[in-house]
């Protein structure tokens, strides 16, 4: 592997800074790093869904990912000569979960190109702060990172993430040049009835982390015919504090009222509503489920929906399946929508 050693080193140093902050936070010494503290406070104020716990989880995840060993293992699969003619790559970032656009940002810079990023109003503080830490480690990055408000112009390629509605707009607006356009995806879990309480508790992390707002959150479960949800409800009871968050509680109360008014059947444990529904996407505070009669039939059914599913979560040990509790902890080579971002960038 050959790569820009300065850029590589800057990201490794960033990982060290993130790990240091998270460790200090856990032992009550985060005050020693006021820049991080102030940035988290601003991020929380800008987006009520960005709780301190979720913000720190995002920082901790990236701290674990950005080690020299992890980076080398990831990049060893590519020819990292670097581009002869670096391009400006526009990144339209979503704001549903903290730092959701960081992987694209990393890929563009580590491939030798320039970043032109349009931030979501819901996540406009974290990326500039981390960028400044990178520039402190490698001043040469200052000329390769730009954040823009309003209309994004002067780019050679685009990576844009949004909803199905904004995705159609992106496809029209960015159709003339190289692009990656991401739309809505959801993650689903497959249960067979033999899961341990610990595995079901871990599944709760996949459901509730970031309040279920991410494409890697499990929004639907498949269960066998005759499956009872008693053990599932018992195992996720530790997440009952979700309903203490005012926006989550408002969604829970609203969806429950709608189900009751429409005489829809649902299960309710006081903080999560389970509804039998064929759709992958479910509202906040709602988990959809479907029943299956055979695993083989289910596998065939899911093959036809591959374009709608981000992650499959189970303990079946099947290729491509994510273990319970790890849906929100993707590796560096676990690309969104299965599209190899780094390969795309090297082809520019």
Cα(first) to Cα(last) distance is: 19 Å
Largest sheet: 7 strands, mixed
**What is the count of DSSP helices, taking H or I runs of 4+ residues?**
12
Beta-strand percentage range: 15-25%
- Strand tally is 12
What is the CATH topology classification name of the largest domain? Aldehyde Dehydrogenase, Chain A, domain 1
Q: What is the C-level CATH assignment of the largest domain? A: Alpha Beta
Mean pLDDT across all amino acids = 94
Q: What is the number of domains? A: 2
How many whole angstroms does the radius of gyration measure?
Answer: 21 Å
Helix content bin: 25-40%
Strand order of the largest sheet: 8-9-10-7-6-11-12
Describe the structure.
- The chain has 2 domains: 179 residues, Aldehyde Dehydrogenase, Chain A, domain 1; 137 residues, Aldehyde Dehydrogenase, Chain A, domain 2 (3-Layer(aba) Sandwich).
- It is 39% helix and 16% strand.
- The chain is built from 12 helices and 12 strands.
- It has a 7-stranded mixed β-sheet, sandwiched between helices. Strands 3-2-1-4-5 form a 5-stranded parallel β-sheet, sandwiched between helices.
- Helix 6 links the parallel strand 2 and strand 3.
- It is globular.
């Amino acid at each position: 592997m050959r790569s820009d050693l300065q850029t590589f080193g800057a990201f490794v140093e960033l990982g060290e800074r993130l790990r240091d902050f998270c460790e200090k936070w856990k032992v009550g010494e985060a005050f020693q790093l006021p820049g991080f503290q102030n940035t988290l406070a601003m991020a929380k104020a800008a987006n009520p869904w960005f709780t301190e716990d979720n913000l720190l989880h995002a920082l901790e995840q990236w701290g674990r990912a950005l080690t020299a060993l992890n980076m080398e293992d990831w990049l060893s699969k590519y020819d990292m000569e670097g581009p002869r003619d670096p391009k400006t790559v526009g990144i339209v970032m979503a704001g549903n979960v903290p730092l959701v656009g960081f992987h694209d940002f990393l890929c563009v810079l580590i491939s030798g190109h320039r970043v032109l990023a349009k931030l979501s109003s819901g996540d406009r503080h974290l990326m500039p702060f981390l960028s400044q830490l990178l520039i402190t480690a490698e001043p040469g990055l200052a000329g390769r990172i730009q954040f823009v408000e309003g209309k994004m112009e002067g780019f050679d390629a685009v990576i844009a993430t949004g909803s199905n509605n904004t995705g159609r707009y992106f496809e029209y607006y960015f159709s003339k040049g190289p692009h990656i356009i991401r739309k809505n995806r959801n993650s689903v879990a497959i249960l067979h009835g033999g899961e341990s309480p610990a595995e079901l508790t871990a599944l709760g992390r996949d459901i509730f982390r970031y309040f279920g707002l991410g494409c890697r959150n499990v929004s639907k479960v498949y269960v066998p015919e005759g499956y009872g949800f008693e053990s599932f409800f018992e195992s996720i009871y530790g997440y009952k504090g979700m309903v203490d968050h005012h926006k989550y509680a408002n969604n829970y109360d609203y969806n429950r009222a709608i189900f009751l008014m429409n005489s829809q059947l649902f299960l309710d444990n006081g903080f999560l509503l389970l509804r039998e529904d064929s759709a992958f996407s479910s509202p906040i505070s709602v988990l959809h489920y479907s029943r299956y009669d055979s695993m083989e039939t289910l596998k065939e059914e899911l093959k036809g929906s591959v374009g709608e599913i981000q992650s499959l979560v189970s303990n079946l040990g099947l290729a491509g399946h994510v273990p319970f509790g790890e849906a929100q902890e993707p590796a560096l080579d676990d690309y969104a929508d299965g599209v190899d971002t780094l390969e795309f960038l090297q082809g520019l």
